[in-house]
Amino acid sequence: xxxxxxxxxxxxxxxxxxxxxxxxxxxxxxDIIDLGMGNPDQPTPQHIVNELCxxxxxxxNYRYSRSIDESEVKLRxxxxxxxxxxxxxxxxxxxxxxxxxxxxxGIAHLSLAFLNxxxxxxxxxxxxxxxxxxxxxxxxxxxxxxxYEKDGYLPDLKTVPKNIADKxxxxxxxxxxxxxxxxxxxxxLQGVVGWAKGKNIIIGHDLAYSDIVFDDYKAPxxxxxxxxxxxxxxxxxxxxxxxxxxWRMGFAVGNRxxxxxxxxxxxxxDFGTFKPIQYAAIKALTGSQSCVKKTxxxxxxxxxxxxAGLKEIGWVAPLPKATFYVWARxxxxxxxxxxxxxxxxxxxETGVVIAPGTGFxxxxxxxxxxxxxxxxxxxxxxxxxxxxxxxxxx
Length: 394
Ligand SMILES: Cc1ncc(COP(=O)(O)O)c(C=O)c1O
Prior knowledge:
The protein is α/β, with parallel strands linked by helices. It has two domains: 5-43 and 291-391, Aspartate Aminotransferase, domain 1 (Alpha-Beta Complex); 46-286, 3-Layer(aba) Sandwich (Aspartate Aminotransferase, domain 2). The chain has 14 helices and twelve strands. A seven-stranded mixed beta sheet has the order 2-8-7-6-5-3-4, with helices on both faces. A three-stranded antiparallel beta sheet has the order 9-12-11. A two-stranded parallel sheet has the order 1-10. The radius of gyration is 21 Å and the shape is globular. Pyridoxal-5'-phosphate binds at residues 38, 102-104, 128, 174, 178, 206, 208, 237, 239, 245, 250.
């Protein structure tokens, strides 16, 4: 069996290699501390689970979900209300809100919806992998915009050559940023919208971590920028804010024509999310947000413990203002290793799993990402084990 060329063009999925290394370690009886994948470990709040359970008993909820059905109408209204409360931006629930089966699905389908073979998509690198993989699956031409620590991991759009910008149809952005945990100011987003104006480029802003913010930082929405609605949509998710990663509930908001085309693409492929999950998402978005605060407070404690612990053992990493990631340069002692080699060494020697920077694109080389998805005791234990590796004779 020969898989399609579009799959052959995709970069190696490094988490597959990491899973294999993990399995080998587990077989040897190693206790794995998994700070690799950004897979939230805290439970979904009880009131959301309860709503799923009661809605799952209603026979009316078992049919295919259509956009005119009560559950979807109410969900789009709940999303618009949530968005207004959070960002002060009014959305027309019918035309400016589109529920997704998780935001990853929508991001991949945005490329499929708009890219012809010679169309270019601009993607900052490193990035959450579906930003570039979606482009490759769709058969588009990927143009990486390298982003660097010295620039706060913000892309300099002036470096995009004019002939590339002219052929570009899409620009992906995502702040707070996975994997670097970088943040953007409203001024930065304003600059991006100004740059895109008149260029026929769609901006897809992935705001998955809008709620996972610390120290009074507020993540801006791109739709807060005047004129952004002309060319932008924004992706959101219940996965991180409400610990609903496995539930698959996300949504896109913004430009109605872009959303219409995205909805058209999806209509040929899926039937949306199970209605009880939609009702549970409504509960999440319209209910008390104190559960979100609790989740963020937990990540903050973990962040502080990890960054302080690493500092104590001589590994300095910046304190992130958002996301549940810590992005760190490979310690000097091991800087001759690739990020994948360093991660493999850590798994073998300590059972601590982290993600290699190159899992997020070539410009992630030299860095690794910790996901704060284990409790503080386990994080402290991980630091102690890493200390051994930093003290090892090489
Ligand atoms: C930046 C970013 N966008 C999107 C997603 C996917 O979220 P969802 O569960 O909504 O597909 C993730 C998950 O880690 C992410 O980090």
